[in-house]
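Incident log, structure service

09:12 report received: a user says their structure output differs between two submissions of the same chain.
09:20 pulled the input from the user's history:
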Amino acid sequence: MIAMLGMYDMPEIQQANDRYWQEIRARLGYGPENLSRDLDYWDMWQSPDLLLGQTCGMPYRTRLYDKVNLIGTPDFGLPDCPPGYYQSVIVARADDRRDTPQDFDGARFAYNEDMSQSGWAGPLHFLKGLRFSEMVPTGGHRLSLHAVAEGRADIAGIDAVTWLLLCEHDPLAAKLKVIAKTKPTPGLPYITAQDRDPAPIAEAAASAIANLNEQDRKALHLRGLVRIETADYLSVPTPQAVWA
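09:34 re-ran on a clean worker, output below:
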């Protein structure tokens, strides 16, 4: 069996995620001893051995929703977001004189990958009408933050949960400013293999979150587990990229 929580598993909080998984595993009474961290996401998401994984909303609605079972969506208590929802923060360099999204027409846009809701689809839908002189693929939210901070791009969309974590753990975040936030959309759901009953996993995860120690709760920003219907994920629009 496979358990993998790679969406919010940066090195600085991996020990807290390990303890979170042990809490889930203890309540389930079964599961792999350790979280996997070396698997391809698509292979993991579609594996018949998947016990607990986490995916982004865009892969879920475009390719996975009818191939996996939805367990639930973790709630991170984000301000201005319903429980279980999140948004993208649109960031630019703090010393950039441009202050509104409209000021960045013709700018260079950094994105983690084109199957990301928070780094790609959400920001591009929010910024529709703008044209970009260059699309800068980075391979990760942290790398998008670095691209903007180091002047290789002008603007980027960052997952709001990841932004909180990077503000706590990455000094380069202090070089950026938030110029806007996208409309909230359903957060990153926990999933399991299609032939596996998600109910006991949801119950174990919810109980584990409720019983996290205060240090791990603060590190992971976890507040609870909520049920968001598949239809709510499928209703989120997927935009097309626009270049100048």
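09:41 both user submissions now match this output. Likely a transient worker issue. Closing.
09:42 reviewer note: The domain at 2-77+186-234 is CATH 3.40.190 (D-Maltodextrin-Binding Protein; domain 2). The chain has nine helices and twelve strands.
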